[in-house]
Amino acid sequence: MKAIRSFLLAALVVAFATSVQAQSLKLADRQHGRTVTAHQLLSNLQTRTITVRDPAYGRSMTYRALPLAELLKELAVGPEDYVDFVATDKFSIGIPVRLLRGGAPQPFLAIESEGAPWPALPEKGRETAAPFYLVWQDAKPGEISPEYWVYKLAAVQVADSPYKRWPDLRVGGELPATDPAHRGLDRFVALCISCHRFKGAGDGEQGPDLGQPMNPVEYFQPGALRKFLRSSKQVRDWPQRRMPSFNEEMLSDEDLEAIIAWLTYKARR
């Protein structure tokens, strides 16, 4: 009986520690790092109630949230830097700091409070966006990449831009500035690199590397590739599929063709 009690006590301690950790957010720049709790963030005088048009939930949602600019005051961030938002499921996306320092649309860190748990995400079972969620107030359709709405946040950390960290992604100087491959790279960084690497470049782990062993333009027929980007399940589906669909509001026809132009350029090299 004594051993059982000890085991149960240890289990409770682990569960409590896990719960506390899940409600904590790591903040880091190149020199320093610290952890803040949901309680500390909710106690900030700049925290307020906001309502946003939420693409993850597919409806308007109301949150207690802190302006991202307020959070960035604690970090040493340069004007050309990016800020990486890392989720508990290893989803990671870098966002240019110029988009995060206010203006419209304005980014906020939504914080779940103990007495008001968030609902489950559509088609995600019991999974919610908790405990922290990067949301955008007054964002017009197509104005902010859907990948920039980052839920289940675990860490916010300053980093170099993807173009500086992975120069092999760049388009060579032999192409004119008007070539769509340039814009295709920008859209890849905004929409795809959070899940996909390209020949090892990137942090994405949720999808396959798009540069090796083969480039998608080498094994997809052009029409099938376009349809796959619009709605992957129309081309192939499997139980663990995580590839989202990109409608014209998220990805214009021009941007879709630009991504294909960049992939084609890289395949030729």
Task: Draw up the topology in text.
Layout: H1 2-22, E1 24-28, E2 33-37, H2 38-43, E3 48-54, E4 59-67, H3 68-72, E5 82-87, E6 92-96, E7 106-111, E8 132-137, E9 153-159, H4 162-165, H5 180-191, H6 216-219, H7 222-230, H8 253-268
Parallel strand pairs: 1-9
Antiparallel strand pairs: 1-2, 3-4, 4-7, 5-6, 5-9, 7-8
Helix pairs in contact: 5-8
Seen as an oligomer or otherwise, the chain set is: single chain
pLDDT average, as an integer?
A: 88
> What share of the residues does DSSP label as strand, in percent?
15-25%
Order of strands across the widest beta sheet?
A: 2-1-9-5-6
Counting DSSP H or I runs of 4 or more residues, the number of helices is: 8
Q: Report the radius of gyration as a whole number of Å.
A: 20 Å
Helix vs. strand class: alpha+beta
Distance between the termini: 69 Å
CATH-scheme architecture of the largest domain:
Alpha-Beta Complex
Assigned CATH superfamily of the largest domain: Oxidoreductase, molybdopterin-binding domain
Q: What is the CATH topology of the largest domain? A: Sulfite Oxidase, Chain A, domain 2
Overall shape: it is globular
Helical residue percent band: 25-40%
Sheet having the most strands: 5 strands, mixed
Low-confidence stretches: 1-21
Explain this structure:
- By secondary structure, the protein is an alpha+beta fold.
- The protein folds into two domains: 24-160, Alpha-Beta Complex (Sulfite Oxidase, Chain A, domain 2); 164-268, Cytochrome c-like domain (Cytochrome Bc1 Complex, Chain D, domain 2, Orthogonal Bundle).
- 29% of the residues lie in helices and 21% in strands.
- The chain contains eight helices and nine strands.
- It has helices at 2-22, 38-43, 68-72, 162-165, 180-191, 216-219, 222-230, 253-268, and strands at 24-28, 33-37, 48-54, 59-67, 82-87, 92-96, 106-111, 132-137, 153-159.
- It has a five-stranded mixed β-sheet with strand order 2-1-9-5-6. Strands 3-4-7-8 form a four-stranded antiparallel β-sheet.
- Helix 5 packs across helix 8.
- The chain is globular, with a radius of gyration of 20 Å.
